Amino acid sequence: MWGIGTTFQVKKEGESTFTDIARIRSITPPGVTADMADATVLESEGGVEEKQPTILRLGDATLNVLFEPDDEDQKAFLERLVNRELVTCRIVYPDGDNYLKFKAYIAGFEPGEITTDGLLEATITLAATAKPSFGPLDSSLSGLAIGTLTLVQDDGETEGFDPEVLDYTATTTNDTNKITATPANEDAVVVIKVNNEVVESGSSATWDDGENEVVITVTVGDEETVYTVIVTKTAG
Hints:
Layout: E1 7-12, E2 19-20, E3 24-28, E4 32-38, E5 51-58, E6 60-66, H1 72-82, E7 86-92, E8 98-111, E9 121-128, E10 133-136, E11 141-146, E12 152-153, E13 167-172, E14 176-183, E15 189-194, E16 197-199, E17 204-206, E18 210-220, E19 223-233
Parallel strand pairs: 13-19
Antiparallel strand pairs: 1-2, 1-7, 3-6, 4-5, 6-9, 7-8, 8-9, 8-10, 11-14, 12-13, 14-17, 15-16, 15-18, 18-19
């Protein structure tokens, strides 16, 4: 796999979306090694030393970047170094479907040599502080509920939510129902609109008489999935 197309993204605690850090020349992800304890006992077969893994130790991640002092994202990144902020980092691989995610403190910024004929470069060091995780950029929902309404899939017969089915209908006599949309990926951004008005997941939507359009957009990186439910309110 070629490295061209890999992106590095970051968000600080409390933020819901990742920001791309631009102009990166190379990335070295954090490594993981395990300390080994001597577990040899008198009964060890053949008198051979036995070992048992103990604590996991994380290596640093490094970024080699084309440094631009007026780049807002790079400046914000460096401010987090000064403020000693914990950040969540995500390396998205060129296939666009998979990523490596880890938490880290920005531990160092080392400017490169400034010459008359070269580019301004810098090395940024990230001290990983939680076990890295691999995953797909899954922009689906793992669950969708509108109160206790029965969701009918687009074949007009099958009932219930299926992450791979995008279109549904439902009927209600209620004035309101709570909408809960649960993303499969914890980093996903979920936007729910009812008749083009934003409704937070876990909040109640108010229905007009007749058909109401519920659109749920799930975004992870460049991946996006849109679910639609037509809720028809009838007289009670």
